[in-house]
Amino acid sequence: MSLPLASSALLLVDLQNDFIHPGGAYARGGQGCADIAALPARLAPLAQAFRRQGGLVIATLFTLVPGRGGEPIVSPHLMKMRPFLRRGDFAPGSWGQAVVDELQPVDATVEKLAYSAFYMTRLEWLLRKLEISSLVVGGIVTNGGVASTVRDAHVRDFDVTVLSDGCAAFSPQLHQVSIDALRPVAGVETVAERLRALEAGA
């Protein structure tokens, strides 16, 4: 486990109030998931360790950009899967768009419009400017935003590690299949393994 913390970042994918909080949009739509809800508490000690030792914590924020009349621009495939989404959900600057309190503060945020955090965002620009070459990735969902972001990081020559228990999907089976599929392009560790490595290097 190489730990050049000055050039490393913990990338938290979409751990936002509208996805996770009991008062958020997904809870309102009946889309709660215990595995997903457990992630902030599991990842918080790792985020704190990164910050203590000079690494950065960067969070992606899935965002529904307001369009005509203030109505959110929602991709057709997403509206088909999540018809409960409405005006104000994941809106820029809103409570729902924000990272959950358990993982605050973060060092930087990047608005995200699709599955991959690299698609039409400033993430790559930000990482290059901050001289980040190594990413440790956790968040949701394993088969969507996490997998797409990890693969896009790999093709951009970032060293990537995905946290096997720092991610979750809406079913354990889908999560595990997705983690296994990422092994050719990323290292795979548990949160505890990474935390022990950080502490050993302190």
The CATH architecture term is 3-Layer(aba) Sandwich
| Mean pLDDT rating | 95
Silhouette:
globular
Order of helices and strands: EHHHHEHEHEHEHEH
Q: Biggest sheet, strands in spatial order?
A: 3-2-1-4-5-6
Poorly predicted spans: none
The CATH homologous superfamily corresponds to: Isochorismatase-like
Q: What's the number of structural domains? A: 1
Q: Largest sheet, if any?
A: 6 strands, parallel
Overall description:
The structure is a single chain. With 202 residues, the chain is α/β, with parallel strands linked by helices. It has a single domain, classed as Rossmann fold. The protein contains 9 helices and 6 strands, in the order βααααβαβαβαβαβα. Strands 3-2-1-4-5-6 form a 6-stranded parallel sheet, with helices on both faces. Helix 7 (142-155) links the parallel strand 4 and strand 5 (159-168). Helix 4 (39-52) packs parallel to helix 9 (191-200) and helix 7 packs parallel to helix 8 (172-182). The protein is globular. It starts with 7 loop residues before the first strand and ends with a helix. The mean pLDDT is 95.
How do the strands and helices of this protein lay out in sequence?
Layout: E1 8-13, H1 17-20, H2 25-28, H3 34-37, H4 39-52, E2 56-62, H5 76-81, E3 108-112, H6 123-129, E4 134-140, H7 142-155, E5 159-168, H8 172-182, E6 187-189, H9 191-200
Parallel strand pairs: 1-2, 1-4, 2-3, 4-5, 5-6
Helix pairs in contact: 4-9, 7-8
Q: What can be said about this structure in brief?
A:
The protein is α/β, with parallel strands linked by helices and 202 residues long. 37% of the residues lie in helices and 19% in strands. It has one domain (5-200): Isochorismatase-like (Rossmann fold), CATH 3.40.50.850.
